[in-house]
Amino acid sequence: MGGSRPRVAVLDDDETFAELMQAILEEEGYDHVSPLSSGTDPVEALAAAHVDVAVLDLRGVSEEGGLGLLNRIRSRLQDLPILVCSADVLAMRRHAAEIATIPHVATLEKPFRIDALTGALLRLREGASQATAVGGRTGRPAAVALEHLLERTARSLRWAVAEAWIADLGPGLLRCAAGWASSDEFQSFVRVSRRTRLPIGSGVPGRVWVSGRAAWITDLASDMNRPRLRTAQRVGLVSAAAVPVVDGGEVVGVVAAYDTRRRPHDAAVMDRLHGAVEGAAPILRAAAGLQLDPS
Predict the structure, then answer these.
(1) Are 209 and 228 in contact (CB under 8 A)?
(2) Cα-flanking dihedrals φ and ψ of residue 174, to 5°?
(3) Residue 191: CB atoms within 10 Å
(4) Taking CA 146 as the corner, what is the angle to CA 142 and CA 147, rounded to the nearest 5 degrees?
(5) What global pTM score does this model have?
(6) pLDDT in tens, 173-187
(7) Are 18 and 34 contacting, i.e. CB atoms less than 8 angstroms apart?
(8) Rounded CA separation 29/17 (Å)
C-alpha cells in the first residue's frame, strides 16, 4: 500500500486533533492521510485512500455514530487494521464488549501518550487478529482469559494465589493485570495488588521482570523488597514463586504465585510453572496497557 512509509488515515472531525496527529505520525515515520471531506462518505473515502491503518473517532465523524461506522468499515474493508481513538471514554467502555468482537481493532483513549499510540499502531500492523484496548479498560473476555489462566496454573500446582503482572502506562512501572485467589480470605491481597504500581525491579514481579529469570522465595518475611508484605502476612501468605513470560526475547509479563506454606525451592514445580504459562505471551501482549478494574 503506497510507498515505504506506512499510510495512516485519521477520521476525526476535530481539526486541532487531526493537525496534531499529522505532526505526530510524520515524526514517527508514518504518512498521514485525512480522507474526510464535506459530502464524502467516510467508508468510500477510506477505501479510495489505500491506507495501512485507520484511526477512527467514535463521535462526530458520521451521523450513524462511531460504532455504526466502524461496523460499516469492517464490512467493506475486512482486513484493514483500525484504531478506535476517542475522548468519549464512557462510550468506549460501554461498547467495549462489542468492539472486542471485531477483528483487527484496538482502542485508545484520549489523551494518550505517543508511545501508546505508536505501540498500538505497530501491533495492528503486525497483523494481530484482534488487538485489545490500549490505555483503557479491558473488556470482560480479556479479563476472564487471564483469570482462567491463573486459576488453572495455581490449582494444578496448589498455590493459594496467582497474579499476572504487565507493563503499566506509567514509565518504569508494572501493574497487576489479573489475579486469582483460592478462597475469599486471600481476596484482600489480590485487591491490594491490583491497586499497586510496582517500580520495575521492585518486589518479586519487578525483580523477575528485570532479570528475566524465575525467582523462588521460601520466606517472604526475609525478602526486604516487599511493598505488599503487610497484606501478605495478614492473610498468611509466606512463600512465592514467579516466572517471566518471554516472547521473541522480550519479557512481556510475569506470573507470580503465593502460598501459605513455607515451600522450599522445588525445581520440578518451577518447571511446571514455566510450562503452565508458556503460551501466555499473546494474552499478556494484548493486555499490555489495559487498565483492569482494580476492585
Answers:
(1) no
(2) -115, 155
(3) 16
(4) 115
(5) 0.54
(6) 888 888 999 999 999
(7) yes
(8) 18
SS3 for 246-287, per residue?
EECCEEEEEEEEEECCCCCCCHHHHHHHHHHCCCCHHHHHHH
Q: Of all residues in the chain, what percent are helix, strand and coil, respectively (each to 5)? A: 40, 20, 35
| Amino acid in the structure at residue 169 | L
Q: Give the whole-angstrom CA distance, residue 188 versus residue 217.
A: 21
Segment 167-221, tens digit of pLDDT = 887 678 888 888 999 999 999 999 999 888 888 888 889 899 999 999 999 998 8
Half-sphere exposure of 62 (CA within 13 A, CB side): 22
Residue 111, preceding peptide bond in cis (omega within 30° of 0): yes
Question: 289: number of CA atoms within 13 Å, CB side?
Answer: 22
Count CA atoms within 13 Å of residue 231 on its CB side. Answer: 17
Distances (CA, A) of 36 to 43, 48, 56, 79, 114: 10, 11, 11, 20, 23
Whose CA is closest to 138, among 113, 175, 170, 173?
Answer: 175
Q: What CATH homologous superfamily does 140-287 map to?
A: GAF domain (3.30.450.40)
Going from N- to C-terminal start, the domains of the chain cover 7-125, 140-287
Give the CATH fold of the 7-125 domain.
Answer: Rossmann fold (3.40.50)
> Residues 165, 174: contact at Cβ < 8 Å?
yes
